[in-house]
Amino acid sequence: MSELTPVPQPDQQAGRAVADALASSVRGDSFGRLSGVASWLAACQGVVPAAALRRPRVVVFAGSHGIATRTFEGVGLSAFAPESDAQQIAELKEGTGPSHSLARRASASITVVDCAPSAPIDAEPAMGNEEFEAAFSLGQATADAEIDSGADLLIPAEVGVGATTVAAALMGHFTSTEPVAIVGPGSGTTDAMWKTKVTVIRDAMFRIRNLEGAEVIQAASSPSFAALVGFICQATARRTPMLIDGPLCAAAAVFAESLAPGVKQWLLAANVTTEPAHIKALQLLELRPLLELEMRAGQGLGALAALPLIQSALELAADELNVLAAAQEPTLESAQE
């Protein structure tokens, strides 16, 4: 993997200016956590107040996880068959399905990036070195293309059966958490499926026990995960804020932060699920989720649900700062006289 571009700092002065202005106003101080959203985006944009979002963009990295094919005592690890990946990807490309419904309401757009399938990580490396380099570079190039075309807020997303299992194995390794403690409910997981998930997560974590950094990504994730990490690293290097949603994307953000310190300052957690891997990832990133909808459909659905609230935060802050500025004008005119 080539050397990454250092991550710049957001404009903390712009962020503090918005935060201080809202705190000085009785009404602005009552906006609660929306004030923090407005000041975060002001820092990311370097503008006071932050400008309204004109082109939020969801980028879904689609790829099959080999782990989804594994069984234990004849039972798989998900309520969805691996074959359902193709149906979900087809919906996304056709402009149908739940994510497009919320995207239209939030004035966002969705693009799908096809990624190579991965090997079953409990038995062999997810991908070879060339596949890893290609997937990581694909993520970086995708971020560049989206930003060059005018995206001012990015939502990295994923689709693929077995994503929560991959996230659990990665975060279990990263945090030294036992498989039985890091495994989550997934999408309608039964007790028998839970046993299968614990088994494959245990075997995957054992395989990578002596690895770290990019070696872990290559050995125990998937090309779509490697692309997510590359995407997040490059987007933050180019000063573009992102909404993080879902266990796999949160885990990708953790690995991006480890490879390029400073990434987390450009991230806002949109939603949190009940997956332990998701919760631990946000804790490591020091991100408090804006919503706790426990949505587990992937595809950036939780972030899209949060997007109108984020737009509202910007509008409230801009209006309040305008009111404060207008109130100060008579004072300034008197001083000039």
From TrEMBL:
Keywords: Glycosyltransferase, Transferase
Pfam family, one: DBI_PRT
Gene3D superfamilies to which the protein is assigned, alphabetical: 3.40.50.10210
Name of protein: Phosphoribosyltransferase family protein
MF term (GO), any: glycosyltransferase activity
Lineage start: Bacteria, Bacillati, Actinomycetota, Actinomycetes, Mycobacteriales
